[in-house]
Amino acid sequence: MEFSRKKIISNYPWLAERDHHFIISADYDGLICASMLHQQLNWQLVGYYDLTSLWISERARQSRQDLIWVDLNILPVRGRAIGGHIISPGRETPRGFETSCNPNILYGLTAKDFRKKFPFSTLIYLLWLHNLKVENSLMARLLVLHADAVWLKFQHYPGNVKTWTEILGDYDWDWLFKKVNTRTYEKRIDELLYPKLKALGAVSRSGKLKSVHLGLRSLQYQFNPDWDEDVILGLFRLFGNELKWTPPALPVITSRIEGRRFKVPLHEVKKYGLQEWLKKRKVFSYAIPSPQILNYTTFGDFKRSPLEKKGTPYAG
């Protein structure tokens, strides 16, 4: 099976439209997607979501019916999203995901298919969709492959990576992944990329995967908009300098809306049936991170957008 850019964009035309408003995941992956989408399509950043709390601007409230959620998987039927998590325990796909451009959904993958799961970042999926080549520099590649620790997945899951480079055909994968599985590449990560990220404060924890040659762990970054604006701006400047992507303006956050996040065994969900269980728990967003677990967030209402809630006035 090979995906067709033309067919995907025909089914999700908003992916190629200009001037949309969007909300991103509150992490490195979301920020680098924001830079690319602003550069390519002039999308305007209006908020952040860390899977528990929503930080939104007044513009986000005004355009809540037309928002796009990037590097996220949200359930509401009107919620257009692009993300890459497994969302189905079986063959049942909730109605809300009909408007989500998720490569795992398009390929028909479920919780039984984790070995075949999309191994790339949302950023790389977007680059492929728009057939955009990254700047021809080492640092540009390091920044792109750092998102969602793609360079480590390339090392650890070569068979699945090869499958997905074939599914996502007509792209210069050889250049993007050149020498990634080498000691030299890992030294560049350790000596060039990681010091820059640490100097910016753009590191919050280490990932689980270790590199093959030097035993490096991925450095992950999840931010809190209440106090991390300087780090966000620093990353945007770095992306601008190295990738030549003009960053979006930071949203003027006016309120924070608190949800509740839970983890449940997947077999409990299967007992009810996915659609019924999601409705009962009033789920807004969820993902299946392993064959046994489902993580979800609720804002206490299944039919109404959380952006309609008053929320906590922003004091950041």
Features:
alpha/beta; eight-stranded mixed sheet; 13 helices; 316 residues; three-stranded antiparallel sheet
Could you describe the 3D structure shown?
It is a single chain. The protein is α/β, with parallel strands linked by helices and 316 residues long. It has a domain of 221 residues. The protein contains 13 helices and 13 strands. It has an 8-stranded mixed sheet with strand order 6-5-4-1-2-3-9-13. The protein has a 3-stranded antiparallel sheet with strand order 10-12-11. The longest helix has 18 residues. The protein is globular and about 50 Å long. The mean pLDDT is 93.
Q: Kindly, what is the distance between the CA atoms of the first and last residues, rounded to a whole number of angstroms? A: 47 Å
Structural class: alpha/beta
Multimeric state of these chains?
single chain
Mean pLDDT: 93
Contiguous uncertain segments of 5+ residues:
none
Tell how many strands the DSSP assignment holds: 13
- Compute the CA-based radius of gyration: 19 Å
Main sheet record: 8 strands, mixed
The helix/strand series, from N terminus to C terminus, equals HEHEEHEEEHHHHHHHEEHEEHHEEE
Broad shape: globular
Number of helical runs?
13
Strand percentage lies at 15-25%
Q: Classify the helix fraction into a percent range.
A: 25-40%
Major β-sheet strand ordering? 6-5-4-1-2-3-9-13
